[in-house]
Amino acid sequence: MPVPFVDLYAQYSSLKDEIDAAIARTIANSSFVRGPDVEAFEAEYAELMQAKHCVSAANGTDSLYIAMHALGLKPGDEVIVPAQTWISTSETVGQHGAKAVFVDIDPTTSTIDPNLIEEAITDRTVGIIPVHLYGQAADMDPIMEIAKRRALWVIEDCAQAHLATYRGQQVGTFGEISSWSFYPGKNLGAMGDAGAATTSSDDLARKMARFARHGGINKGDHEIEGINSRLDGLQAAILRVKLPHLADWTERRRAVAARYDRLLADIPSITTPTAADGRGHVYHLYVIETDERDALQSALKARGVPTVINYRRALPFLPAYADRGHTADDFPVAHRLQERILSLPIYAELSEAQQDEVVAGVRDAMNVEK
Ligand SMILES: *Cc1c(COP(=O)(O)O)cnc(C)c1O
Are strands 169-170 and 286-289 parallel, antiparallel or unpaired? Predict the structure, then answer.
């Protein structure tokens, strides 16, 4: 029984007729860039994510970049970002000529540690970008309290956390702007690159839409120089087919995660992911921790079970940031985590038989009885 790390074809198969029809309709209309499905998707997505506006973009990295533009980020500014995340969160700060300042993560949730944020703030700091990593909300109450008291903006990086909650409140509703990715493997995935930013501010929505469309909301009206970052019509039509299924897929991911939790609970050398109190985890990734990570990954590979390390190096230790001269002591939690993490296959369509194969592989490799 093959177990892919993510099975995009299985999801397509479950909605084949509707997706094929949506693609055919888009081709028949020739609405390839923007068009009716893009506008409809923006409205539907804003509603589901409880925001007044959704501004779509070509991908979730652009939506971060566009959000920072709307908030006025400029050269010399500093922005607080977690040490452990995908590089989109920090590279987009650098692209504005500003500096991403890393803050270590909490050892239990792997999200930014709010207790370390204040000491990283300087008189150049303008914002904080919490990342709801692996599908679990960052600790938003203390983050929002600090942001308010220090007059900083907050962009939530929700790329991995569609429908995740914090104390009953949906992620994406805390900060000034929230950024989303619909990269194919994300919890809501297109069939190519796609992304969006949501906000409840009319002014920020307008600034984002203007910047993403060559600096003018209407064709030819260039109020400023902008960029070209648009959601294409095919992706919007496909995302509209998938959106109504997101809640069910999220429940399936939670069931798969709960089953892994149960079946791996008795292995002392493995730590399964912790969903902190009050956080509705959506398990974009199911990340276990073990000191024997490399041996476990090789053993699983040998039996055909693919795993991934998200991410092999925390941001401060990447060559891209070598000029900062960071050492393990600067970010001890992120450094220890990068040596221990392993992501097991998880997606809505993963069958119990496939999951049993992953679990059997882990148990064999760790020398525990079935
Ligand atoms: C995927 C991801 C992004 C960016 O998404 P793309 O659509 O691939 O550009 C940003 N931040 C995080 C944390 C992500 O996981």
Answer: unpaired
